[in-house]
Amino acid sequence: xxxxxxxxxxxxxxxxxxxxxxxxxxxxxxxxxxxxxxxxxxxxxxxxxxxxxxxxxxxxxxxxxxxxxxxxxxxxxxxxxxxxxxxx
Length: 88
Prior knowledge:
mainly alpha; 0% strand; flat
């Protein structure tokens, strides 16, 4: 529960920072395309990486799994920002 709140707060702070730095306008087509491509592959990558960490019994698996989930959430937030018309 707390982790989900931290993730949402992290995404909100990141998006607020983007708008404060003048990045709130629509990004160029190349960036939109790159972010969309990254987001298409990110969920599968995170699932596979997390499964490998847990299967290997990595001593830092819990932290790394959390990092992967936050990275996936960030990619999704960036995609929604860069391509708002696709979310409708």
